[in-house]
Amino acid sequence: MKFKVNGVEVFASTGGRPFDKKKPLIIFVHGSGLTHMTWVLQTRYFAFHGYSVLALDMPGHGLSGGESLKTIEDMADWISDVIDAVGYKEASLVGHSQGCLVILECAFRFPKKIKTLSLMGGAGAIPMNPELLSLAENDDPKAVDLMMDWAHGPAGHFGGHPVPGLYHINTGGMLAKSRTIKNTLGIDFRACDNYKNGFKAAKEIKIPTLSILANGDKMCPVKEGKKLADLIDGSKIEIIDNCGHMMLLEEADKVLNVLKKFILTYFPIKKN
Amino acid sequence: MTDKKKKSTDPKTYKFDTLSLHAGYQPHKNAGSRQVPIYQTTSYLFDDVDHAAALFNLERGGHIYSRISNPTVAVLEERVAALEGGTAALATSSGMSAIFLTIMTLCEAGDHLVVSSQLYGGTVNLFRLTLPKFGVKCTFVKPRDTEGFKKAIQKNTKGIFGELVGNPGNEIMNMPEIAKIAHDAGVPLIIDATYQTPYLCKPIDHGADIVVHSLTKWMAGHGSSMAGILVEGGKFDWMQNDKFPTMTKPYEGYHGLSFAEEFGPTAFTMKARAEGMRDFGPCLSPQNAWNVLQGIETLSVRMQKHCSNAEKMVEYLLSHESVAWVSHPSVPDHPDHDLAKKLLPHGKGSMIAFGIKGGKEAGEAFINNVKLASHLANVGDTRTLVIHPASSTHSQMDEATLKFAGLSQDMIRLSVGIEDFDDIRNDFETGFRAARRPRLVSNQ
Q1: Is residue A176 very low, low, confident or very high in pLDDT (cuts 50, 70, 90)?
Q2: What is the mean pLDDT of residues A97-107?
Q3: How confident is the model at residue B4 (pLDDT cuts 50, 70, 90)?
Q4: Is the pLDDT of residue A179 over 80?
């Protein structure tokens, strides 16, 4: 659906069901340079099981208007604005990669609004490889090819997409190339590289938090994810085997199963 | 920058020859089976009611019924998508069903297509006679008439279709320019690249949005199994205009799903599967999918041999006293020679058309007397194949349509195989001797 946040049109997938303000809200925040489509194998389940879902296209990404936000802090504020714009007082947040930094900072800044955090392939900081950063900021498509290479685990490189007929690496690459690379991936990578508040924010988080990590993740390795999770009070960790950073596609079912268990437990649908 | 640093920025994603052996398959998810298993089943157990609902609602990936998808077929689909540089693919029971499914996913009654005139005879009949019965009309344009494609576009045009190298006349479409014409008009370019395979050309890299193949041909190579596929490039923006409401508007058949919004770069394939396979059902059998996979494993080595034999054959035919003309993009005076060098850098393919001196009668004598070359209605087999199109594949056409399709009565269509070239040449000598014999008699 399309709606306005601070006067700018925003697109969000509602998971194939009409957006219903009576239902609890889960917001999905994509990673660097990507779009709402990365979440298709997680969002539809929740939309069909009693939740209102918004898989956002961040400003300047996918089908959303505006320009890409330049800092993780601005993105965190924007997520809070999204919650206001759709008329909610609270939401549960799910993030992937850069999206983890965004929702972590959002929960730090707006602790009363955020009910749970689900961090996929997250870390307290995501410093960028200088060459990758430079390629992205210079609009070089090789940045996308490298990101897709590093983001997929050894098994993911062969394919085996859970949706019959889809090929992981080319699909992810096409999403990242759907807008101008320097204006999406370039800005996002710089925002990740500049963000330094992750560990401090983590210490302040008091809401249920789940870290989903993958043992083949080269971009946000398990040890970095654990370092972050250890700082969050009561945080839970799930590790997906034989999988890389694009766990939400590479092992979509396993990721959905652990996410489902966590959200149904800590952000249940209230029965009348 | 040092060489070491340069190396660090080279993506390590697998290359063509590796993908042709491995893409789409993970042994550890299949009992460690090194070879792709044949899932010879119609249907798949659901874990519980919730799991069943999730599959039907497209909440999860997975298989329900083999008309819609099958694990063996899915490996083939993913492998071809990987080789073509596409985002997704959907395999079908034949190349013709892949084309039909593509058009039925794209068009509604009242729509129009711009179509290259030089196509396989069956495809011509689909566009000329069958699709109008469904309310889809077509305007045919000669493949070299790039401007003609532009002029033929109407308000209700939903796509441009053509074979990259036309069958059987070897005329090449200027794919990058025709892609621009299609995209300026807000419609996709659909390319049948059966003759090239992704080893010789990846149409998506040159602007095509959907690629179709008869996998029966070079992709499989062995001539044992019928199969087809459509591959999605993922770049076409279905939401840029209001031409494709069935892609962009809520679809009643899936709880108001908008394929374009929900699936973006794989929307076309998702719709073709969810609607087309469900409603038309031209599914590929798992056994045939497996057979095609065996062929794809050796695609690059076979194509190299096909192309090198074809080059030798062109040289032989050009200097032969019984040959009136030779059409192959490798011939320097072929009208599309320069375009072929750009679009087909790894080889110009193994389809050759030539005219035999003595016309139809000589052609029939040639075909009746070759022994190694097989006379049949197929191309792209590992074996050398010959046919006389005017009396077989294109025999449903009248004289005027034949001429418009670039055919003549003296034309022999030749699909060069990978046998030892000396043996093919010796066989052709026998054929040519027989072809000359009636004329020698009549001259006495």
Answers
A1: confident
A2: 98
A3: very low
A4: yes
What is the b/e burial string over B293-323, where b = at least 16 CB atoms within 10 angstroms of the residue's CB?
bebbbbbbebbebbbebbbebbebbeebebb
Q: How confident is the model at residue B444 (pLDDT cuts 50, 70, 90)?
A: very low
Is residue A187 in some structural domain? no
Residue A143 has which token pair? 């940045």
Domain count, chain A: 1
Specify the pLDDT at position B3: 43
What's the structural domain count of chain B?
2
Q: Is B284 in the same domain as B176?
A: yes
pLDDT band at B405 (very low <50, low <70, confident <90, very high): low
Classify residue A156: in a domain, yes or no.
no
Give the closest of A48, A62, A166 to B88, CB-based: A166
| Domain final position from B235, B266, B296 | B296
Among chain A residues, CA nearest to B58 = A44
**Sheet order of strands, B228-232 included:** B88-92, B228-232, B210-214, B189-192, B157-163, B112-116, B137-141
Residues B56 and B205 in one domain: yes
Mean pLDDT (whole number) for A153-172: 90
Euclidean distance between CA atoms B334 and B15, whole angstroms = 32
Asked if residue B209 and residue B172 are part of one domain, the reply reads yes
Contacts of A253 in chain B (CB under 8 A): 60-62
Separation in Å, CA B200 to CA A233, B174, B421: 57, 16, 21
Among the partner-chain residues A11, A62, A253, the one whose CB lies closest to the CB of B60 is A253
Whether B121 contacts B154, CB under 8 Å:
no
Domain boundary, last residue among B279, B296, B313: B296
pTM: 0.94
Residue B19, domain extent: 3-296
Q: Kindly report the number of other CB atoms within 10 A of residue B434's CB atom.
A: 17
Report strand pairing: B411-415 vs B385-387.
antiparallel
In this predicted model, which residue has the larger pLDDT, B167 or B65?
A: B65
CA distance B362 to B439: 8
Q: Summarize pLDDT for A16-63 with one digit per residue, the tens.
A: 889 999 999 999 999 999 999 999 999 999 999 999 999 999 999 999
- By residue range, what is the domain housing residue A203? 2-126+196-266
* Cβ-defined contact of A159 to B25 (cutoff 8 Å): yes
- CATH number at B79 reads 3.40.640.10
Q: Output DSSP code: residue B257.
A: B
B300 residue type, one letter: S
Q: What is the pLDDT of residue A160?
A: 87
- CA-based angle A215:A220:A223, to the nearest 5? 60
Chain B residue numbers touching A256 (CB-CB < 8 A): 60
What is the amino acid identity at position A176? A
B249 with B373, same domain?
A: no
Nearest to B61 among A131, A242, A252 (CB): A252
Q: Check whether residue B354 and residue B427 sit in a common domain.
A: yes
Query: Are B291 and B315 part of one and the same domain?
Result: no
Distance to chain A for B348, nearest Cα, Å: 26
**ipTM attached to this prediction:** 0.93
Q: What is the pLDDT of residue A272?
A: 60
The minimum CA-CA distance between B258 and chain A, rounded to whole Å, is 8
pLDDT given for residue B2 in this prediction: 38
**Domain identity same for B238 and B308:** no
Q: Identify whether residues B272 and B380 lie together within a single domain.
A: no
> Which of A1, A140, A163 is most worth mutating to test chain B (most B CB atoms within 10 A of its CB)?
A163
CA distance A241 to B112: 50
Residue A144 covered by a domain: no
Beta-carbon separation of B13 and A165 below 8 A: no
